[in-house]
Specification:
Strand order of the largest sheet: 2-1-3-4-5-6
Largest sheet: 6 strands, parallel
Number of strands: 15
Distance between the termini: 74 Å
Helix content: 25-40%
Bound molecules: cobalamin, iron/sulfur cluster
Radius of gyration: 26 Å
């Protein structure tokens, strides 16, 4: 019924259009190769999001087989990002599975044919204009073309050049779709519509139906996010890196955050386990639970505030995952730091469960016999209380944001002691940021160094993200405009990151010579004079003490740090009831309140 070139011989599907053995699939789903690969773990994709295309050789040398992907017999993709798998699952409610295919970009020609009506692309970060990704390519000189963007553009060009292009619509979705809307690259990339939202929505299904009927579709559509846990679907096929959703939303309400705009939902364990089993069945050995904050799972919409983690529920969930036969590796995704201060025993017990299956090794940091480590992604964002109050006032709850520096240091201490070495993001160039704010963040970073604490620090330049409360705000836009202190913060973070890699005799020398060579060759012109001394500090050409004496850098002032006991003592009385005694450090008020409650219940 919907075919423009009907084949009278072909059978009719339940939706009323003609099937054709060689006419292509009705709906073809795909994603950029660099986002689909299930190779070498998270870090390769993160590197490809940040390195410019001219540095692709570095990736090729380190991972010569990264382009080798696996197929099913029919040529479809063995693994795809979780987003693609969910679109596939959502559509399968309406269309026959034989009408839908998920394939790698190189296989598009096999599946796009005269009866194809939709080519749908899921993308995480197609243009590299999001935080962290854009900044590093721009330091190296090309702000628009990280490796991932290059491959995304190549994919769009391939679809645009299809001989059947007039017959189908190109619909884009996924967490990076907004980049197309914001840069208005519809024409250039050959995109008809960008969907902002989840594929489960009936609005998404209506959009696909319209496209299949070859009706006009809007350029942009915002679809509703499901509000209850049962409306979120789960893939029953293999996902890239074994990603399975654990929660949506967050609840800490940082102003710059996109995922926090979604409702706070923790997904049912049986469905999570179903998706884990599906991954294992299809040959995946790794699982990773996608979340904004792993610690809210099991404590969403209960009588206890979500920022007091549900220890038993979390241990049960993670235990079931790593004990699933076939799961050989498990990787953490995002978390927050305050729960480590609230419940250190939870961190310890999670380590006992998770370390044996962690593929991450930090030989110079870990005390685990096999040097294994856990590395969740955690937002530090700023060390300035003034800035934190403005942009992330609830980031450290149950602790007041005034104690943010102590929460970070204390949380990191607990984590490091249990072999958690998180990757922590920092935002440089927030709107209205002053030198004082940067100095406060440097104070915190130097204090981390003095205390021998380790986190992999990822500074990125403030990017106003769509729909957030900071969408209209402007921070620094070019690396040349960064102040000396902003540069110093970035370079100090990277210098500290390299600490565990510098134990070989050649390590420091290689970095020193490499970075100076790079500066002479390219970077001094690109990044301007404010970059010079921070780079010299990074390269270790002059000691930090000497550079500070010369007035070229700021080496931080000691900060007053509250211990865990002191932090707990700052909690509001009504919060004390949610603390657990086995962690110790409880303030006297906790015991008084408990005795009072007991006396009251006896009296009743
Ligand atoms: C797992 C993950 C990763 C993994 C794996 C990614 C992968 N290829 O599978 C790794 C670690 C590699 C990664 C890397 C990066 N990530 Co990431 N990642 C996530 C995380 C935790 C989960 C993503 C996920 O699979 N979710 C589950 C699926 C089901 O959700 P989904 O993809 O959004 O799909 C739904 C909808 O978007 C929609 N949909 C999806 N595709 C399509 C297509 C069509 C046609 C339609 C209609 C609908 C649709 O329907 C789906 C639900 O039904 C999210 C946070 C989050 N909770 O989403 C961050 C997140 C998406 N990542 C983020 C960032 C910043 C990055 C990096 C840039 C970080 C960096 N600097 O290195 C890189 C970029 C990587 C790249 N290739 O370019 C940001 C935002 C990205 C953005 N564009 O704004 C997020 C939101 C994290 C955050 N809190 O800030 N990431
Ligand atoms: S803690 Fe992280 S996920 Fe939660 S609102 Fe803040 S930035 Fe977003």
């Amino acid at each position: 019924m919907y075919d423009t070139i009907p084949n009278p011989e072909s059978p009719i599907s339940k939706n009323g259009y003609h099937k054709s053995a060689d006419g292509g699939k009705l709906i073809v789903l795909t994603a950029p190769l660099t986002e689909a690969i299930d190779h070498a773990g998270y870090f390769i994709q993160m590197a490809m999001a940040s390195l410019p295309i001219w540095m692709e050789g570095v990736i090729n040398r380190k991972y010569p087989k990264w382009r080798e992907v696996e197929h099913y017999k029919d040529g479809s993709a063995k693994y795809m990002p979780a987003g693609v798998r969910l679109v596939e699952k959502s559509l399968s409610r309406v269309y026959e599975s034989d009408d839908i295919v998920s394939c790698y970009p190189d296989d598009l020609e096999k599946f796009i044919g005269p009866r194809t009506r939709v080519v749908a692309v899921s993308t995480h970060n197609p243009l590299g204009v999001t935080f962290a990704a854009g900044v590093y390519t721009s330091i190296f000189g090309s702000s628009k073309m990280p490796i991932n963007s290059h491959y995304s553009r190549e994919l769009f060009a391939k679809i645009k050049g299809s001989e059947y292009r007039d017959n189908f619509k190109v619909i884009v979705g996924g967490s990076g779709g907004w980049q197309i809307i914001q840069t208005d690259l519809y024409e250039e990339l050959g995109i008809d519509c960008v969907v902002d939202g989840r594929s489960e929505s009936t609005d998404t299904l209506d959009l696909f139906a319209k496209a299949i009927r070859q009706e006009e579709i809007p350029r942009e559509i915002v679809v509703k996010h499901p509000v209850d846990r049962d409306s979120i679907m789960f893939p029953d096929t293999r996902t890239t890196f074994g990603v399975v959703e654990m929660t949506t939303g967050c609840g800490r309400r940082c102003k710059f955050c996109v995922p926090d705009l979604n409702p706070q939902i923790d997904l049912p364990k049986d469905k999570i386990m179903g998706a884990v089993l599906a991954n294992v069945r299809e040959g995946n050995k790794q699982i990773s639970l996608a979340t904004e904050d792993m610690f809210i799972w099991g404590q969403v919409h209960t009588e206890i505030p979500f920022y007091f983690p549900n220890r038993e529920a979390l241990l049960d969930l993670y235990g079931s995952i790593v004990d699933t036969p076939g799961v050989e590796q498990h990787v953490l995704s995002h978390a927050t730091i305050a729960p480590a201060v609230v419940d250190p025993i939870l961190i310890k017990e999670l380590s006992n469960i998770l370390l044996p299956k962690s593929p991450i090794h930090f030989p110079y940091l870990s005390s685990h016999p096999e040097k294994k480590a856990l590395a969740p992604l955690i937002g530090l964002e700023t060390g300035s209380i003034k800035m934190a109050k403005k942009v992330m006032a609830s980031k450290g709850v149950p602790f007041a944001i005034d104690h943010w520096q102590s929460v970070v240091l204390e949380g990191l201490r607990v984590m490091n002691e249990n072999n958690w070495f998180p990757a922590m993001t920092l935002i440089v160039g927030n709107p209205d940021e002053t030198d004082e704010d940067n100095m406060a963040t440097l104070d915190l970073i130097y204090e981390m160094e003095r205390r021998g604490l380790f986190a992999f620090l990822i500074p990125s330049i403030f990017t106003p993200l769509h729909d957030t409360r900071m969408e209209m705000e402007k921070g620094v836009t070019k690396t040349r405009d960064l102040t000396p202190l902003q540069w110093q913060l970035m370079m100090k973070c990277w210098k500290m990151n390299l600490r565990p890699g510098q134990y070989s005799w050649w390590g420091p020398t290689a970095w020193r010579l490499g970075s100076i060579g790079m500066w002479l060759y390219k970077l001094r012109k690109l990044n301007g004079p404010n970059f010079t001394y921070p780079l010299l500090m990074f390269a270790g050409l002059f000691s930090e003490k000497r550079l500070a004496k010369m007035g070229k850098i700021y080496t931080g002032k000691p900060i007053e740090v509250k211990s865990r006991r002191e932090l707990l003592a700052t909690l509001k009385p009504k919060m004390l009831q949610y603390l657990r005694e086995d962690n110790g450090d409880l303030p006297d008020e906790y015991f008084t309140a408990k005795a009072d409650a007991k006396a009251e219940s006896v009296a009743v």
